[in-house]
Design brief:
The chain is an alpha+beta fold. It contains 3 helices and 5 strands.
Length: 112
Amino acid sequence: MKTPYGKECKFFYGDYARGHETQECRLLANNPESENWFPALCQNCPVPDILAANQCAHLRLYGRVGKSLFGLSKKVEVEGFCDQHFVDVQDPRVGCGHCHEIDLEEMQAAES
């Protein structure tokens, strides 16, 4: 679904039918330790860009609302985890580095 700022994000949910105006970020709703989400966070959220760059089925994202450098504003902070290799993902846009090796090996074996 598209966020209020026009980016496609599988974690954003909006219900505008029959007078409803429900919006939520389901990634942040799954984290009870996160501060409350509000739609303006979607403007600079890194999650839509991460999802567009890396569509690995084993990448799990964990997000929370954190404070910016000087604590005056809030932003979405995202961490990644690979559930196939059980490693933290340093850069979720790139992935863990192991899943793509396996996919490449499988493609080369299929070509042989």
